[in-house]
Design goal:
The complex is a heterodimer of chains A (about 575) and B (about 90).
Chain A (H helix, E strand, L loop, with lengths): L13 H28 L1 H12 E6 L6 E2 L5 E13 L8 H11 L3 H9 L6 E7 L1 H10 L4 E10 L7 H4 L11 H5 L1 H4 L4 E7 L5 E9 L7 E2 L4 H17 L4 E8 L5 E7 L12 H4 L2 H4 L1 E2 L6 H10 L8 E3 L4 E4 L2 E4 L6 E3 H7 L2 H9 L3 H10 L26 H8 L6 E2 H7 L1 H4 L3 E2 L14 E2 L3 H14 L17 E11 L2 E15 L6 E8 L8 H4 L1 H15 L24
Parallel strand pairs in A: 2-8
Antiparallel strand pairs in A: 1-6, 2-3, 3-4, 3-5, 6-7, 9-10, 9-21, 11-16, 12-15, 13-14, 17-18, 19-20, 20-21
Helix pairs in contact in A: 3-5, 9-21, 12-14, 12-19, 13-19, 14-16
Chain B lengths: L1 H56 L2 H10 L22
The chains are: A alpha+beta (about 575), B mainly alpha (about 90).
């Protein structure tokens, strides 16, 4: 201020130095406090904010397990495809570009333009699941606002032949039918995620942590044999077409291991292209449909009677005059036969004979046998929608019902139950548990009838396919086969339809040491023939021949059969 | 004292440079690992596609069609098959 006030003479008050010192200390204090706050109190938030600048959480995709047939051939595989999506607001494309995009996507340009003009939505799929090469060409167009995303698509090389066994998955890779649904939890993988550091160019420079490891789905090996499946489906398809039938189903079981070697249905569908599917195509008749089996049930009644010692195979039964009246209901045979042995009742498929045998049995025992061979209970394969069939409580049976049940009316079963039940004859009296997964191991069964009874029934059933039986067309050259036909009126609106039938055949071979049980069912054959012996038995024969050959089962019959299938007289049956 | 400080400074600088180099190396190795893993994934995908292709070409119905139609093959008549027992096999 004043000129005279030179520094040497000015004596500053002491408080000023103190004040400056205090201010400096306070400033450091504030800084330290702030540092503590940031480092200790607020650190999580800041760490997170910092991390979000460079670290990213990435989804690690998991693939769905493959499904293989028992020979290791792939029948369902997931492979990546691209889905194209857009943010309508960001899309800038000239009409020419829209047009070329539409051609690449194979959609209508006007439709595409409409999707782009709807700016209220900020995410719209243009097309889902296209091949990666196609997606690359779209990316080359370089249009802003159009993106692609990787997804997995399931392919089924087996096509319609395997459709009902495997089923299919939906867009979200979730099993919707068949094995795909039944084994969803083990087939589906679990997508994982990990945290990484990305640089400015978007490439990953460091792996920070794996939040969850991706778990790929497990591969599944089915019990189904692709070769036998193909034979079965082909034979069924041509039979259904030839007989102008509404539907058909076939199942092939391995007697020793309880494995399902083939399972086919008609009509079928192509699981790779499910554009327009009808309910009829989707239905797995082997598993989910129940029907009145007709005469294929006769062997069970007879087996029970033999097992309990009430009859012997050579006990004579009077079936003349081919009619039996019980309380105003008449049971009749297609051909009146007169005096027949028990074995002949099976061979000629006499309703009257079977009814007479059944009436000599306690109701409870019959019901118990039906239960023990697996009727009226789900076969427990783990397949979705397995039917359990209908077996009414024995206490409500009237005599006429007991009689008709002996030849398969008034009781409903599914084809797989029927095939499984026949395993008691093929396995010396034991009922085999079934599986759809390859095991290759002989499986322990549950005894239902004695070994002797099973062998006696095998002989009777072998007679049924010999000349003079109901199904000589079921014979297989080189092998001894046994089986039983069934021709049942269809149930419609609570009554039996007059001219609609279900023709079935269940049998096994080779009789000396059974390996396979095959059950065939043809629904409403309407090309003149409808007897099980004429419609279903040839399918059985064809499939059995092919399957035994493919499995390399040694022939057990004389190599010079005098009769050729198709010759010899054939007996028609009533039910 | 000053000498010690200088020596420590030198060690510090060396350590810092070492850290930078190793970090760089780690990142390079990591990106290589990423690339290889990506390659493994792609190979796996390709394997799946090839398996699919193999299954499609080897469809039993297709094989059968070719065998019967273009190669004129057929299954032998069981009457013309003779079974040969392996030597020493029980009869």
């Amino acid at each position: 201020m004043s000129v005279a006030a030179s520094p040497a003479f000015v004596r500053l008050p002491v408080w000023r130095a103190r004040f400056v010192l205090f201010a400096l200390v306070a400033a450091f204090g504030v800084l330290a406090g702030r540092a503590v706050y940031l480092q200790a109190v607020n650190t999580d938030f800041l760490q997170m904010k910092g991390a979000s600048r460079f670290s990213r959480v990435l989804e690690v995709p998991a693939t769905r397990g493959r499904i293989l047939d028992r020979n290791g051939e792939a029948v369902a595989i997931s492979t990546p495809v691209k889905s194209i999506w857009a943010i309508p607001e960001d899309v800038q494309a000239s009409p020419a570009q829209v047009k070329s995009l539409a051609t690449l996507l194979n959609v209508d340009p006007a439709e595409l333009q409409k999707k782009f003009s709807d700016t209220t939505r900020d995410f719209v799929y243009l097309k889902r699941q296209i091949p990666p090469e196609q997606a690359e060409r779209i990316a080359e167009l370089g249009l802003p606002g159009i993106y692609s995303q990787r997804e997995y698509r399931r392919y089924y090389p087996g096509g319609d032949g395997m459709a009902h066994v495997i089923g299919f998955t939906g867009v979200g890779d979730e099993g919707q039918e068949g094995i795909e649904l039944a084994f969803q939890s083990s087939l589906a993988g679990k997508a994982g995620s990990r945290r990484v550091i990305k640089d400015r160019r978007g490439s990953i420079v460091e792996d920070l942590e794996s939040i969850r490891a991706a778990q790929d789905g497990k591969d599944l090996t089915l019990s189904v044999d692709g070769k036998i499946q193909n034979i079965a489906f082909g034979a069924l398809k041509s039979a259904v077409e030839f007989h102008k039938a509404k539907a058909g189903a076939i199942v092939v079981l391995d007697v020793r291991s309880g494995e399902v070697l083939a399972l086919a249905n008609m009509p079928s569908y192509n699981p790779n292209n499910r554009g327009k599917l009808t309910g009829a195509q989707l239905r797995n008749r082997v598993m989910t449909d129940i029907f009145e089996p007709g005469s294929t049930l006769k062997p069970f009644t007879v087996a029970l009677a033999v097992d309990e010692g009430r009859v012997r195979p050579d006990t004579m039964i009077q079936t003349a005059p081919g009619k039996l009246t019980i309380a105003n209901h008449t049971i009749s045979d297609a051909h009146a036969s007169g005096l027949l042995s028990v074995a002949q009742v099976i061979q000629k498929s006499s309703n009257v004979g079977a009814a007479k045998i059944a009436l000599g049995l306690p109701k409870e025992d019959m019901w118990d046998l039906f239960k023990r061979v697996g009727f009226g209970a789900q076969p427990a394969l783990g397949f979705p929608g397995e039917a359990q069939g209908k077996v009414r409580d024995w206490k409500t049976w009237r005599p006429i019902e007991q009689a008709t049940m002996s030849y398969g009316h008034g009781i409903s079963v599914s084809l797989i139950q029927l095939a499984r039940a026949y395993s008691i004859f093929a396995r010396d009296g034991e009922l085999a548990p079934l599986t759809l997964v390859r095991s290759d191991m002989p499986v322990a069964g549950r005894r239902v009838i004695s070994v002797e009874t099973a062998r006696a029934l095998r002989e009777m059933l072998e007679m049924a396919v010999q000349p003079g039986g109901t199904a000589p067309r079921a014979r297989v050259m080189g092998y001894r086969v046994a089986g039983k036909t069934g021709t049942a009126h269809k149930l419609e609106n609570g009554g039996y339809a007059a001219h609609k039938y279900i023709s079935s055949f269940v049998g096994f071979a080779p009789v000396s040491d059974p390996r396979l049980v095959i059950a065939v069912m043809i629904d409403e054959p309407s090309n003149g023939q409808y007897y099980g012996g004429a419609v279903s038995a040839p399918v059985f024969s064809q499939v059995m021949q092919g399957a035994l050959r493919s499995l390399g089962v040694p022939p057990d019959a004389p190599m010079q059969p005098v009769e050729v299938p198709g010759e010899g007289d054939e007996v028609k049956e009533g039910t | 004292m000053a000498k010690l400080s200088l020596a420590l400074l030198a060690v510090l600088v060396a350590c810092a440079l070492g850290l930078v180099t190793s970090q760089h190396k780690a990142r390079k190795l990591f990106s290589e690992l990423e690339r290889e893993q990506e390659r493994a994934r792609n190979l796996d995908i390709e394997y799946g596609q090839l398996q699919l292709e193999a299954s499609t070409w080897g469809l039993h119905s297709r094989v059968e069609k070719i065998a019967t139609n273009s190669l004129a093959m057929r299954a032998s008549d069981p009457r013309r098959v003779r079974l040969v027992q392996p030597a020493g096999a029980p009869k």
